[in-house]
UniProtKB/TrEMBL annotation:
Record has Transmembrane as a keyword: yes
Name this polypeptide is given: Solute carrier family 38 member 5b
Cellular compartments per GO CC: plasma membrane
Residue intervals passing through the bilayer: 74-92, 98-120, 188-209, 215-236, 307-331, 351-373, 394-412, 418-442, 454-476
A biological process from GO: L-histidine transmembrane transport
Alphabetically ordered keywords of this record: Membrane, Transmembrane, Transmembrane helix
InterPro entries, per database record: AA_transpt_TM
Domain of life: Eukaryota
Molecular function as annotated in GO: glycine transmembrane transporter activity; L-glutamine transmembrane transporter activity
Subcellular localization: Membrane
Signal peptide: none
A Pfam family: Aa_trans
Length: 489
């Protein structure tokens, strides 16, 4: 009788001990990720700003274990920054002068890096790595909708620059047609709109269906390589094209003497200067991609993600500056809104420039999947906030987004209107206004009169001032400007 009772007791004790050990193991593992900084083994492994939320629950960023390396993350973020906007920087320098352009470009780059800092701090306090959820935490459901709308408007609008490439396609087709007597090819081959649809289906769509952004690091690296080829070609052409060139009608310098036509200006203020700041601000916007990239980063910390942002912004700053300087010093006051169009006036069938056009086409094409990722995430946060991942939903949103982008690409207006309007609205919202407001509303541990909060408030006010001034200048240019296009597309 006694022996029969011992076995259940021993089993019960063993089970209880196992449960206690398992619970302690889980508790220790969990506390390792949630404990304050000074309990960590190394600074690099720390989670940034691990403050507790209002409910006393430590922040939990994500259950997803990031596997993307530092280099791949830099490629993805740099690719998100890079785009056809680089084609308009020489035109911006022609309308500001070298020194003023350098001041503006440096200021925008520094402010963009500081904006990423505010965004990461806000995300760290509440344990959220979704831009839309930060908006919800700061302003409730309207804030979530606002953040999603701004991200969607910016990224879809930014890909309207892909319209430039429909023209690039046509010119590459023209080159191939005259070189290889391609007149026997079907008519659709020479139609850029058809080719945009084909490229969207067979190149962009498969990449856009990637579940994780980290997988696009390889294509982002190739995209940046294409833009480096573009930069090298611009530098090379500076020493091969004489100035003045007889083929120019000199739209932008009707009242300038021949001697001044090939003279670099250090400070310039004219009617077209209004477009410069929006174009520059739009050139450094990468903020919708920051949190998704941070989520998939291996060994994620605030310092590590800030370093990725700084390296990406610095790399693009150097590329932007070199492109603008050598493009401007090639054509001076004859520089047009789209740099490659200016080269076409020298020799429409220049083999190198046509190869550069193809490289830019490939680069911007490979940028589209990267910027579609935060749009899809924003739509999922709005329409299916609590739903688990589902491939049908994932594919459907990608198809709808590409359909909308292609419609806008085919029927888009002047390229500079795109950069001007979108840069004057969504860019200051993503760089200045929203990160500053998020920081003020979310970081409750700091008083409003503290220096970080005052800096964030000034940062937000600067965004509103920048937006108002840019829209006003653009409207005045539309009303009174006689030469709005500047010879561009």
């Amino acid at each position: 009788m006694h022996s029969i009772q011992v076995e259940p007791i021993s089993i019960y004790c063993s089970t209880t001990i196992y449960q206690v050990i398992s619970s302690l193991t889980h508790f220790i593992t969990y506390k390792h990720h949630a404990m304050p900084i000074f309990f960590r083994e190394t600074p690099e492994r720390e989670e940034f700003l691990p403050h507790k939320s209002d409910g006393g629950k430590p922040p939990q960023f994500t259950d997803f274990e990031g596997k993307t390396s530092f280099g791949m993350s830099v490629f993805n973020l740099s690719n998100a920054i890079m785009g056809s906007g680089i084609l308009g920087l020489s035109y911006a320098m022609a309308n500001t002068g070298i020194i003023l352009f350098l001041i503006l470009l440096t200021s925008i780059a520094v402010l963009s890096s500081y904006s990423v800092h505010l965004l990461l701090r806000s995300a760290g306090v509440v344990g959220i790595r979704a831009y839309e959820q930060l908006g919800k935490r700061a302003f409730g459901h309207p804030g979530k909708i606002l953040a999603a709308v701004v991200i969607t408007m910016h990224n879809i609008g930014g890909k309207l620059e892909f319209w430039v490439n429909s023209n690039l396609i046509s010119k590459v087709q023209l080159f191939l047609g005259e070189k290889t007597i391609i007149c026997l090819s079907p008519e659709w081959f020479l139609n850029g709109n058809y080719l945009i649809i084909i490229v969207s289906i067979f190149i962009i769509l498969p990449l856009a269906l990637m579940r994780q952004l980290g997988y696009l690091g390889y294509t982002s690296g190739f995209s940046l390589t294409c833009m480096v080829f573009f930069l090298i070609s611009v530098i090379y052409k500076k020493f091969n094209i004489p100035c003045p060139f007889d083929g120019f009608t000199n739209h932008t310098a009707e009242n300038i003497s021949i001697d001044g036509e090939c003279e670099a200006k250090y400070f310039t203020i004219n009617q077209q200067t209004a477009y410069t700041v929006p174009i520059l601000a739009f050139a450094f916007v990468c903020h919708p991609e920051v949190l998704p990239i941070y989520t998939e980063l291996r060994n994620p910390t605030k310092r590590r993600m800030q370093a990725i942002a700084n390296v990406s912004i610095l790399g693009m700053f150097v590329m932007y500056l070199l492109t603008a300087i050598f493009g401007y010093l090639t054509f001076y006051l004859n520089t047009e809104a789209e740099l490659l169009h200016t080269y076409s006036k020298v020799d429409p069938l220049d083999t190198l420039i046509l190869c550069v056009r193809l490289a830019v086409l490939v680069a911007v094409t490979l940028t589209v999947p990267v910027v579609l990722f935060p749009i899809r995430r924003a739509l999922l946060q709005l329409l299916f906030p609590d739903k688990p991942f589902h491939w049908l939903r994932h594919i459907s949103i990608a198809l709808c987004l590409l359909f909308v982008v292609n419609l806008l690409v085919i029927f888009v207006p002047n390229i500079r209107d795109i950069f001007g309007i979108i840069g004057a609205t969504s860019a200051p919202s993503l760089i200045f206004i929203l990160p500053g407001l998020f920081y003020i509303r979310i970081v409750s541990t700091e008083p409003m009169n503290s220096r970080p909060k005052i800096q964030a408030a000034c940062f937000t006010a600067l965004g509103f001032i920048f937006m108002s001034m840019s829209l006003t200048f653009i409207a005045l240019d539309w009303v009174y400007g006689e030469n709005r296009s500047g010879g561009g597309h």
